Structures are given as C-alpha cells and as structure tokens.
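Ticket #4471: structure export looks truncated?
Reporter: QA, pipeline team
Priority: medium

Steps to reproduce: submit the single chain below to the structure queue and open the exported record.
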Amino acid sequence: MVGSKLVNIKNVIQIADTKCQQRKKNPVNPRAAIICSNHMNMWPITELCSRDLAVGLLKGAPMGDIYIASLYCDGEADKAVPHEYRRLMNVAKKEKKLVLVLMDSNSHSETLWSSKRTDNRGRQWENYLADNQELLVANIGDNFTFMSHRGQTIIDVTMASPQLHDKISQWGVVDTVAVSDHLSIEMILHLEGAWTTHPPMWNLGCKKFNKVGFTAGMEEKSRKVSHNRHWKGIDLDTNGQSFVIDMADTLDETAPLTRRSNNIARAGWFDTSCKLSLIHI
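Actual output as written to the record:
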C-alpha cells in the first residue's frame, strides 16, 4: 500500500486573481481559481487572470505548452461569452497553444452539454463555438452538475482544443456528497512530461513504517485541539487543515518514502470478463 502525499496548503499551487480583494473601493473575492499539485509544471499567467478567470500554463507536454483556465460566467451579464475568455483565446491563437477550459457557464444548451432546455445564453455559446470552432465540449452524459434548493441543472462545462480533446477520457460527474452546490467532475488527461518529478509517496505497507510511532505522534499532536462544545464553520476549517498538516508531518517522521510512476490506471469496471467479451466481438 502506497499513500499519496496529503493535499495541504504547503504542497499545492494556487492560481487566482487577488487584486480584486485588494481594491480600495468595493473589494470582492475571486470567482475563479485553479488549485493543483506543485509537482505539475504549472505556471500562473497573471496578466490573463481576473476576478472571473484564472489561467495557468502547463509546460512540458509533448504537444506543447497548454493554457489551463478556470472560468466563471456571470449569469447577470448581457453577453454569455465573457471578454476575458475571448482575450485568452486570442492570445492562445497568436501563440499557437492548446487550451483547456473548465467553466461555470451559467448557461443552458441542449446541443452542447445536454441541458434539459436551451436559453438565450446557451444559444450565444452555440453560435460562438460554431463560428470559431476553437474548442470542443468534453462533457459526457446528462448528469446534473449543479444542485441547490432552487433546482438542478447542467451548467459546468469542460472544453478543450481538438487535439487536446482526444486526450481526455473517463469524464464524469462524481456520485458523492458534494461540499458545495456544484458537484465534482473528474476526468483523465493523458499527457507525458508535464510533471516536474515523480512525487514521493509514503510506503505504508513496508515493515519500516512505524505504526506505533505514528499513533503516538498523532495522539500527542491532538492534545492541542480545543474541545469546544459548539463549533463554528471557521473552527472546522482551521482544525481540519491542522489535522491534515499534523498527519503529513507525522507520516514524514514515521513512514519511509518511495516513488511510483505517474501512469493512470485503467477504469475499474474494465475487468477480465470485459477483455474476454472484446475478443469475441
């Protein structure tokens, strides 16, 4: 058993425009961000970032550098296709780079991403993508991506350059309890060379793993946690992050490290019976 390095604030890259929080008048929070492993060769492109767009450049892929973008489309705006997005596509076209866009479209399109209806904003996206033919929609199926007390719909969209679209597999909405009204989306992007190094992992199955020391270390670190009768949301966030950091530090002290490749395993449902069936087709 090999344990992945836990995701905490120390080993991720965060890309978001923070200038909107620092404005003297009407400071606001970013509505788009990218969080990725610091083992990915990802570089923030701050000149393209805005409150509603976060852009990183993924370097080292065989097909060239790739712009990765997180895009929020304001549902109250007159134009469904934001100016920031058009600017990004113009830059990518000029530099001849591929693009992967992950967006909250706040639009409905039966044709493009299997919404139950098409609204005016969805038709704007249909016309724009038909005229420009820059990106292809990677969404598969008609599972809802957004659920709240107001209803459920499909507004979260993945789009990619045609060459990049062919490298995407196993796109799907995760069937688990979400931490927000947007459900998680998973996919595999088959690339090579976009990792800086093979990330080290904790080898939890070897004899050198000091399980007793790990338990004792966690017990000692847990003594600092305050035992409140009532917990606020910020208390849960703070103590949850503290627990992850404590676990990572304790594993660093008690578990040996090992390395493994970045190869992605095949889909779990494709078993031996599927292979035999494929032979007889």
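Status: closed, not a bug. The export was complete when the record was re-opened. Leaving a note from the reviewer for reference: The radius of gyration is 22 Å.
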